[in-house]
Amino acid sequence: MPGLNSTRAEAQQRANHLAVQSYQVSLDLTAGDENFTSETIVIFSCNKPGYESFIDAVGRSVISATLNGQVVDASNYDGESIFLKNLAADNELIIKMSTSYSNTGEAYKDLLIQLIMRFIYTHKVRPLLLEKCILVLINQI
After folding, report:
1. Are residues 57 and 82 in the same domain?
2. I need a labelling partner for 140 at 20 to 30 A (CA). Which of 52, 81, 82, 101 fits?
3. Whole-angstrom distance, CA of residue 59 vs CA of residue 38
């Protein structure tokens, strides 16, 4: 089952059949104050031609999607996943989407956590100095 609640077994099954060679992401931030558009190109292989899978693609709506030059039916797009049928050995997936800007602060929190962990690892900080490290990092942002 695709989406946020994929099981470990489902993820392993996908990993057994699919291998991504590259991602190319282009963003157009000129679409307005509430939404932006993106184009993502994914080059990947499949060791089981004809295999069906999906790609996680969180957004507001799919503008277009093509797999190996053929239109992908995105009418069942659920805001999280685009279903892919009849994969070839070598694949090129192009997805154009409209997505709403996030203003929940999640990205900022994720960045802050990454910076704190990098600082702690780099400077081999003892747990008792953690509070001081966090204050230093916050002042650097």
Report:
1. yes
2. 101
3. 10
3-state secondary structure 75-126: CCCCCCEEEECCCCCEEEEEEEEEEECCCCCHHHHHHHHHHHHHHHHHHCCC
Looking at the chain, the whole-number percentage of residues with pLDDT higher than 90 is: 42
| pLDDT tens sequence across 24-47 | 999 898 888 888 899 999 999 999
Query: Using an 8 Å Cβ cutoff, are 39 and 95 in contact?
Result: yes
Name residue 100's beta-bridge partners: 35
DSSP state letter for 5: T
- Element of type H or E holding 52: none
1 within a domain of the structure (yes/no): no
Domain extent for 112:
106-140
Which residue is associated with the tokens 């704190």? Answer: 116
Pair 91, 110 in one domain: no
Please tell me whether residues 32 and 57 are part of one structural domain: yes
State how many domains the chain has.
2
Q: Which residue has the higher pLDDT, 112 or 39?
A: 39
